[in-house]
Amino acid sequence: MEKLAVRSKSTLAKIFGTILSILGALIVVLYKGPTVLSDSNPLQSPATHSPVSLSSQTNWILGGSLLVAEYLLVPVTYILQGILVTCFCFVVCAWGLRLKGPVYVSIFKPGSIVIAATLSVIFLGDALYLGTIVGAVILSLGFYAVIWGKAKEEELREEFGEG
Is 14 exposed, middle or buried (0-12, 13-18, 19+ CB in 10 A)? Predict the structure, then answer.
C-alpha cells in the first residue's frame, strides 16, 4: 500500500510515473507507426535461392524429418534453458538485492524492453516500428519516475528515523 501525500514531490512523481508507464504500454500495443529498422533474416529467405535442388518427394521426407526432430528437441531445449536462465536470473537479482537493495535492481527492468526489441530485429528479422520506440521510451520514463519517487520516500523515511 502506498501513502499519498499529494503535495510531496515523491508522491507526484509516483502518480505521474504510473500514468506515463500505462500510456507507454498502450502506445507499444496499440500504435505501430512507420518502420524505423527492418532486418530480414537470411534463414527466412525463400528456398528458390538454395543451390541444392531436390525432388518434390525428397523435400517432403526431409521436411517431415526436420519437423519431427524439431518437435522432439525444442521442448527439451525450452526446459533446459528455462532452468538455466531462471537460476542465473535469480542469482543475479538476489546478489543485486543484497548488494544495493530493491530500487537498484528494479532500475534495470526497462532495459529488458530495449534488449527484447533489439534481439527480435537481429535474430528474428522483425521490423522495429516508431510506436515501439516511442512507447518504450515513455514507459521507461514513467517507470524511472516511480522508482525516483520511491527512492526519495526511502531517503525521507531514513532521515526522520522511521523504519
Answer: buried
